Amino acid sequence: MLTAFSPYYNTRREVYTIVINVPFAKYSVRVEKQDNYHRMHLGFNENTCRCLSIVNPEHAKPVFAVEYEYIFENGSEKDISKKPRSQVTQSNPSNTWPNLDFDNLPKCLSLTELEVYELQIIDLCGRGINKLGAMIDLPNLRELNLSYNKLTAVPDSSMLKHVRKLDVSFNEIQSFEMDTCLPLLESLNAAWNNVSGFIESLESLKTITPNLIMLNVKHNPFKDVMETEATSSLAQAAMPSLKCFNGEIFCHTLHAEYANQHPWIIDHFEMADLDKSRAIKNNLARVISEPNKRLTSPLLINDTQLENVQYANLVDNQLSSVEFIAEFQQLREIYLANNLLTKILLHKCANNLTKLSLCCNFVVKMDGIIQENLPVLKYLDLSNNLITSLISMGVFHTLTEFYCSHNNISTLSEVCNLKNWTGLKMVDISSNPIDSTGLCKKFIIFHISKVEVR
Known about the structure:
Layout: E1 2-4, E2 14-20, E3 28-30, H1 36-40, E4 52-54, H2 57-60, E5 62-69, H3 77-80, E6 99-100, H4 105-109, H5 113-118, E7 121-123, E8 131-132, E9 143-145, E10 165-167, E11 187-189, H6 198-208, E12 214-216, H7 228-238, E13 244-245, E14 248-249, H8 274-282, E15 287-289, E16 311-313, E17 333-335, E18 355-357, E19 379-381, E20 401-403, E21 426-428, H9 440-447
Parallel strand pairs: 6-8, 7-9, 9-10, 10-11, 11-12, 12-13, 15-16, 16-17, 17-18, 18-19, 19-20, 20-21
Antiparallel strand pairs: 1-2, 2-5, 3-4, 13-14
Helix pairs in contact: 6-7
């Protein structure tokens, strides 16, 4: 195990111990010019404090990095005076503060209450903090580092009211739910925690941190969305102000060469519908066919008379809302597979819609999919989503085909309303956790007498 010093967040405190798979001397060079922070340490000499830089890092293959706080307790007054007092925090890393509140915060930082009140940056990294207790509003505080502690939730504290940059990485945080809104927060690092619900986290963050620019949630054990590209797209759709997610800068420029144009694909079972096939082949005003065009919400389609559209193919895009369906008053069929939908909220009736495909999205909530909003719906595909219950859908009398496989429905009680869907002829709720009980198929056969394909 060898030691290397490297600034990671452009601050004054990070020192890393790195385990690598190759001889360190072969891939490092000595940095001759030391910065002021190293020289502030009175014990500095060439033998005890060497700065090394890794060359060809792609060959070094680091295994793990442990962060330490670099403390300057004996710096000269001349050197310390170069930094404003409001940006200097001093603490004793040997002490831990499981329950930290404003009564013991000055002791933790080795400052007076007045000095704490004036701080712009507070560093509480690795202090064994389980909970932040009662804190007062610190109007000057702009950056707060709570990394490497034992927090199980983001502190719901007035201390964060004016914070612009918050680091809670390497804790045990399980969710981002909190009552306090943080409209000034611009940067949040919550990597290496225990958050399991990515969709739920986005719902919370877009409410409590509406102006967030940088978000890092890497290395959390998400169970609902695990693909890197999907998490990035969902974050961008849910929080338009984001410019950086998990260290990647968003690029909003769409190059025409990457917008593949696919024709409408007609299922051969529907060839008997001459009106539909004729409309599609002739590309009339009744058809919108925009797959893989990176369309986003709110949907904007130029040169189209929305009131005449009857068929819409919008698969493989980046739509995060379906509220635009209400603008298509004559719409009969719409295909929305492979988008970024997390909830379905319909505020107006789609009086003519008979076919709705929402498969391969991230749907959790379906408050808008009810018979009152879809009075003539016959075909509904909700497969490959994150649905846990069908109870909110109530009773559907018009549906003849219903697909809800590969979701997260775990008990029969969450699908008990299916027995009142008297018009069903085809139903598929396989590949849900409920399927392992062996009762699912028997339930459908017993309660839905008209089912032809199970």
